[in-house]
Amino acid sequence: MKTQIFGVSLSLFLINLAAIMERADENLLPSVYKEVSEAFNAGPSDLGYLTFIRNFVQGLSSPLAGILVINYDRPTILAMGTFCWALSTAAVGVCQDFLQVAFWRAINGFGLAIVIPALQSFIADSYKDGVRGAGFGLLNFIGSIGGIGGGVLATIMAGHQFWGIQGWRCAFILMATLSAIIGFLVLRYVVDPRQRYTTIHDDRESSGRNDSIYKGNASLTSVWIESLAAMKAVIKVQTFQIIVLQGIIGSLPWTAMVFFTMWFELIGFDNNTSATLLSLFAIGCAVGSFLGGSLADKLSQVYPHSARIMCAQFSAFMGIPFSWFLLKVIPQSVSSYLTFCVTLFLMGLTISWNGTAANAPMFAEVVPVKHRTMIYAFDRAFEGSFSSTAAPLVGILSEKMFGYNSKSVDPIKGSSPEALALSKGLLSMMAVPFGLCCLCYTPLYYIFKRDRENARMLTVKEEEMI
Questions:
Q1: Cα separation, 288 vs 351, whole angstroms
Q2: Which burial class, exposed, middle or buried, applies to 171 when counting CB atoms under 10 A from its CB (0-12, 13-18, 19+)?
């Protein structure tokens, strides 16, 4: 028993380390947008395309995670994805041409596409219904630490040179090395919770059956047939359809936020101060995601069919006033540092609930256990593909509509007119999508209960057939 508990704890510890590196990798490039812009003579729209390429490839490739999990255990899939993004991150650090960067960002998206759904379904299987929001919140909280670390490290290193190499390049190579190490540890030591359940089940009954979910010797035809059946089962769930719709809209502001570091540097903040501001926002998001998930767990005990939806709508709505206040009301000057600090922390604290309070826990309840990876994979596929347009749209709006001119930017002091133009582009892609996202949750008050009961009936029938 002690060995089993230790194995579970070690697995969750390494999974959280993988989440830390995943978020750190995601925050790496946006944290050095200004330096990359100078190195490759790229404007906001060009930088936006880099985010678009990665997110678009990630979205298209995400269903692959649901297919792979049918034939392989999740630690293997997580390690594969981690090695893939480690290679691509290191490659970006040595690129000498903008098109090379774009290619390797696409490969990075492929690696993340495999990792993220497998991570989410791993957590869904590791926690029970009543505490699953807190489980996802903890994963997000710990992952955000990685996002903070990656962003701060890259932003600070970007202002220096190491052994004659630009600091931002060294940050990419360092992050790739750490990711590869974590990938090896996951492959070597993590045990899939479904395998643990199967082992216990087989030991107790000794029935001679092979109930393993992962069929390493399955034929290619049977894998595709089972994959197609899982895809059809997931896509027809109405709760899934509605959450994906709100996610497509609700992901737009978060994708647009990759320009925050660049915006602060244009205002005139130096690398260290910009890193501090983004860290406060990330800390607020980390605490908020855990708080939102835990609060939704508590409220769902009283309002089992509506509490998670109410929490998500509150969080989405709060994005509207905070976006307006941050980008429109606060004077865009270094003298507004303290106001930016408080606003960013409170904003992160309140707008980060949706995934942990509602989306991820609700997905786990509206499909049978064996389809969980597939539902998370298709969620990433739809949301990632469509939301990837936000970053280039911010750049296009800033340049074409609001007059951003990259040639007018001073490398040290920034540029107030360009900061103002970029803030207008950001506001356009944040306030309105937050409002629409809030409205999109409304049909779930009528649909979620039915889908959850259907999933429970299917699970009972499958258990009776075994």
A1: 8
A2: buried
Hey, where are the domains in the chain? 2-199+221-465
Tens digit of each residue's pLDDT (9 = 90 or more) over 275-300:
788 889 988 988 998 899 899 989 98
d(Cα 389, Cα 51) in Å, to the nearest integer?
9
At 204 the pLDDT is: 43
- Token couple for 460: 């009972």
What element of type H or E holds 165?
A: strand 165-166
CB 230 within 8 A of CB 370: yes
- Residue 360 tokens read as 């991820």
CA distance 8 to 410: 52
What's the predicted TM-score (pTM) here? 0.70
**H or E segment and range at residue 161:** strand 161-162
Pairing of strands 161-162, 165-166: antiparallel
Per-residue pLDDT of 301-326, as tens digits, reads 888 888 999 999 999 999 999 999 99
Could you identify the residue written with the tokens 């508590």?
298
Amino acid in position 326: L
* CA separation for the pair 25, 113 (Å, rounded): 13
Is the CATH number 1.20.1250.20 carried by domain 2-199+221-465? yes
Tell me how far the alpha carbon of residue 303 is from its chain's centroid: 28
Flag whether pLDDT at 346 surpasses 90.
Answer: yes
Where does 158-192 have alpha helices with state H?
Answer: 167-189
> How many CB atoms neighbour CB 178 within 10 A?
19
